[in-house]
From TrEMBL:
The lineage of its organism: Eukaryota, Viridiplantae, Streptophyta, Embryophyta, Tracheophyta. InterPro entries: Leu-rich_rpt_Cys-con_subtyp, Leu-rich_rpt_typical-subtyp, LRR_dom_sf, LRR_R13L4/SHOC2-like. The keyword Repeat applies. Keywords: Leucine-rich repeat, Repeat. This is Disease resistance R13L4/SHOC-2-like LRR domain-containing protein. PANTHER family: C-JID DOMAIN-CONTAINING PROTEIN, LEUCINE RICH REPEAT CONTAINING PROTEIN. SUPFAM superfamilies: L domain-like. Residues 80-169, 251-358 form the Disease resistance R13L4/SHOC-2-like LRR domain.
Length: 551
């Protein structure tokens, strides 16, 4: 038998349920007007689940709940006015789950140690709960203890007695400055989450956690170093150290043979990586976002399973090691806003590379080649045939984009804006999946070649030297065309065939305005679509771009 009254916002009370002898489940979640639970609920011997989530006006539970012999799940989450758990809660011999997060409870009853079958205890965001009783160590079946956003200053030493604990979550416990040494006794622990905590150091005993798979201490502003014993975490898969002031990684970090994810993003005091990092043979994700790393060790080329490497905003990093070409599994390389101006010759051997983001912040004012670094894309770059995203905005690309570029046939997004190359390949039709092409502020570019019919967006704003555009009549999917300030363009052949066009920007293209008007008139006649050309006659207005909206 089940009573389901969820979301009954006006329900203020429930009746005597003592005659409901087969009742197994009561669902009263989000009954926000409910102020009390009838005392009879405490004697429902067949009840297994009681859900009071978001009953915001409940201030207390029945004083005697000892009759709930078979209750397995008690959900009190978001009962924000509930201040006390009854002492009789210790009589709930079958209880496996107790969720009391975001309540007003001040302390846990001492009788809680009798809950020998309790597997999950959630106390997140109980802002008045400042300490845990020592008897918590007697919860011998506990598998998950969640204490996120509590004002705890310490954990009792007895927590180390929780031999079956698999997950300990201390996220955003800002007042918690250390973990007890007894944490090393949590022989079943697989997850230790202390992100955004006040922890200053990890106990050396942490190395005894032989089953630990995830250690998250990121954004712990006072954590300056890791214990050497961390190397003995033989099962560790994820290590999150981002936004901490650590100065170095232990030389023995290479002993973590199972490590798959290492996050050291925003570790601004970390200036180098140990050579042993190349021994992390299982590593798939390495994040060094916004770091002060000056160079990557050559051993990084030994990370044969690395899939994602993030180097964005590593502004001290001037080059990649030649060994980078050995990363045969690398799919995603993010190196935006670095100090790099060249790619190693071995780069073309990254045979699995799918996404390459190496954009820099564009200069607002054009800068001559004499004052900037320049890089000519070599034909060998086009061996990266699995590439589907390439972002090289403001990277100092110069010369000619090689004709072999068409071999990158899987590319969907190509961003080459704010560069100094003067020509594209004679044809880009081979890029049959290309949807977005950005060439804005390529001030040396003189012509646009034939483009693939898959294209949806084309941005060539401020290409001041652009004179010729190949026939674009095949661009049946094109929705947006931006040619602002392309003053040398005289004609846009095929414009009248763009039946999907929704947005057209031609401000500052006075040379081709009359032909564009005629072409657009044909579009209106051919497809019976409304168009506004008023801005064509107001060239001196502050916002004078031609915007054709074909709805």
């Amino acid at each position: 038998m089940v009573i389901k009254l969820s979301d009954c916002y006006r329900l203020a009370a429930i009746p005597d349920l003592s005659r409901c002898l087969r009742l197994e489940k009561i669902m009263l979640d989000s009954c926000i007007s409910l102020k009390r639970i009838h005392e009879s609920v405490g004697s429902l011997t067949t009840l297994r689940n009681l859900n009071l989530r978001r009953c915001e006006n409940i201030t207390e539970l029945p004083s005697d709940v000892s009759g709930l012999k078979h209750l397995e799940s008690l959900i009190l989450s978001n009962c924000t006015k509930l201040k006390v758990l009854p002492e009789s809660i210790g009589m709930l011999k079958s209880l496996k789950t107790l969720e009391a997060d975001d309540t007003a409870i001040v302390k846990l009853p001492e009788s809680i140690f009798r809950l020998t079958k309790l597997e999950r205890l959630v106390l997140d965001s109980c802002s008045y709960l400042r300490r845990l009783p020592n008897c918590i160590g007697k919860l011998c079946s506990l598998q998950e203890l969640s204490l996120n956003k509590l004002g705890l200053q310490e954990l009792p030493e007895t927590v180390g007695s929780l031999k079956n604990l698999e997950k300990l979550s201390l996220i955003s416990c800002a007042s918690l400055t250390q973990l007890p040494d007894s944490v090393g006794n949590l022989i079943s622990l697989t997850e230790l989450l202390a992100y955004n905590s006040g922890i200053k150091e990890l106990p050396s005993t942490i190395g005894s956690l032989s089953y630990l798979r995830t250690l998250s201490v990121g954004n712990s502003k006072h954590l300056c170093k890791l214990p050497d014993s961390i190397k003995t975490l033989a099962s560790i898969i994820e290590l999150e150290l981002d936004r901490t002031p650590i100065r170095y990684l232990p030389d023995q970090i290479g002993d973590m043979k199972q490590l798959r994810k290492l996050d050291i993003g925003n570790c601004n005091n970390l200036e180098s990586l140990p050579e042993s990092i190349g021994l992390l043979g299982s590593l798939t994700t390495l994040n060094i976002f916004n770091g002060n790393i000056k160079e990557l060790p050559a051993s990084i080329g030994s990370l044969e399973n690395l899939v994602t490497l993030t180097l964005n905003k590593c502004r001290m990093l001037k080059q990649l090691p030649a060994s980078i070409g050995n990363l045969k599994s690398l799919c995603h390389l993010k190196m935006e806003e670095t100090a790099m101006s060249d790619l190693p010759e071995s780069f073309d051997t990254l045979s699995s590379l799918r996404s390459l983001r190496m954009a820099k912040k564009p200069n607002l004012v054009p800068i001559s080649l004499e004052n900037t670094g320049s890089f000519v894309i070599p034909p060998s770059f086009c061996k990266l045939t699995l590439l589907y995203e390439f972002d090289a905005r403001a990277w100092g690309l110069s010369g000619k984009i090689p004709d072999e570029f068409e071999k990158l046939s899987l590319i969907e997004t190509l961003k080459l804006g704010h560069n100094n190359f003067h020509s594209l390949p004679s044809s880009l039709k081979g890029l049959s999946f290309l949807k977005k092409l950005e060439l804005q502020n390529c001030t040396e570019l003189t012509s646009l070649p034939s483009l693939p019919s898959s294209l949806i967006e084309l941005n060539a704003d401020n290409c001041y030297a652009l004179e010729t555009i190949h026939d674009i009549s095949n661009l049946e999917s094109l929705e947006e065309l931006k040619l602002t300030n392309c003053g040398k363009v005289v004609d846009i052949p095929g414009l009248e065939c763009l039946k999907s066009l929704r947005r057209l920007f031609l401000s500052g293209c006075s040379a081709c305005s009359s032909k564009a008007r005629k072409s657009l008139s044909k579009v209106v006649i051919s497809f019976s679509l409304p168009i506004n050309l008023d801005s064509m006659n107001n060239k001196n207005e502050e916002k004078s771009e031609l915007r054709a909206c074909l709805l």
